[in-house]
Amino acid sequence: MERVFKMSFAGLYPMYIQKANKKGRTQEEVDTILYWLTGYNEKTMQKQMEKKVSLETFFDEAPKLNPNVHLITGVVCGCRVEEIEHPLMQKIRYMDKLIDELAKGKAMEKILRK
User: Fold this and answer.
1) How far does Cα 66 stand from its chain's mean position?
2) What is residue 10's predicted lDDT score, i.e. its pLDDT?
3) Residues ≥6 apart with Cβ < 8 Å to 20
4) Is 35 exposed, middle or buried (0-12, 13-18, 19+ CB in 10 A)?
5) How many domains are contained in the chain?
6) Record's superkingdom (predicted)?
7) What is the DSSP string of 73-112?
8) pLDDT over 70 for what percent of the chain?
């Protein structure tokens, strides 16, 4: 787990973009999801990438986790996201789950739990 927490968000971000692009989705959609989840905006998220912060720092410094994260359910990497006990790992898996839903063609309205 520690290894995952120390991963750089700037290193993970292009992988999310690539995953979305392969399925015909856009960087803008990925950004919208990340902003919704964390409360960052374009400028603040860019600063975090420039500083090459870890996922741990990325979530620790996130302006505001969306109050509807409890609506994110399902399986990522063989784990049910709603049952993950470690708070940071759960946030990381929420992020993974949302990007997976985007890549699977789910409508943005459903991804953002509207």
Assistant:
1) 11
2) 97
3) 26, 27, 29, 30, 99, 102, 103
4) middle
5) 1
6) Bacteria
7) -SEETTEEGGG--SHHHHHHHHHHHHHHHHHTT--HHHHT
8) 100
pLDDT at 77 over 90: no
- Report the alpha-carbon distance of residue 27 to residue 57 in Å, rounded: 22
CA distance 26 to 10: 17
Q: Tens digits of per-residue pLDDT, 38-54?
A: 999 999 999 999 999 99
Give the C-alpha separation, 38 to 64, whole Å: 6
Torsional class of 77: left (φ above 0), alpha (ψ -120 to 50), beta (otherwise): left
Average pLDDT taken over every residue of the chain = 96
This prediction's pTM: 0.95
Helix, strand or coil, per DSSP, at residue 41 = coil
Q: Which domain holds residue 85?
A: 2-111
Strand partners, 79: 76
Total Cβ atoms within 10 A of residue 109: 8
Query: What does the angle CA 9 – CA 74 – CA 97 come to, to the nearest 5 degrees?
Result: 20
